[in-house]
Amino acid sequence: MSIALDVAGRVACVTGASSGLGKTIAQALVAHGAKVVSVARRKADWCDGRASTALSADLSDLRRIPRIAAEIAEPFGAPDILVNAAGVNTRQAADEVTLEGWQATLDLNLSVPFFLAQALVPAMRTKDWGRIVNFASLQSQRAFPGGIAYGATKGGIVQLTRAMAEAWSRDGIMVNALAPGFFPTELTGPVFSDADRAARNAAQTCVGRNGELDDIVGPALFFCSAASNYVTGQVLYVDGGFTAR
Description:
alpha/beta, NAD(P)-bd_dom_sf, 38% helix, SDR_fam, Rossmann fold, Gluconate 5-dehydrogenase, Sc_DH/Rdtase_CS
């Protein structure tokens, strides 16, 4: 018996889907038959209005999340799948971290994934089926310069993923996290703008290269589909073996 990475007929919400890995995952879900609501501050320009639609929203205003969750459900119905791909990295050194930067990072990277999931879980529970995919990071287990606030939130995502799995998996809702390595996105722009640094990162992987956007598609579809029926509370490092060395 084989189980395909099938999301046909599912409704998905992907945050941070106007660019980068979020956009790549959202487009892959559409290509595999899902209907997708893209949520980001900047309205995604790739949505066609039929299988995909864009919602411009500031998720960092936590008080608005219940209303945003209601708006997410309007085009295609309540989501079966939530991919929390939105994130921010202020890249402030430890001695330069500001309260504003710390709070903004905490809100978007850690608080939003929980409270948005909390708002969408009741509808998933009625179907006895749901998928929540959080975004961890290499910094969930490695310390990088200028990453103290970002790393703290991504370490938190690992435990949040476990706790969400413990809370909701008996309702058929599997909760897992992807931890990407170095991919060329807006968030990693400062890394890839330094050719020597990008080359060093590639050399540290087991496969000898940095990630390409399509490398995230297979792991994301696995976590979003029935293929992950017995997988929950897990973190998958999609990093070419960077953390294996």
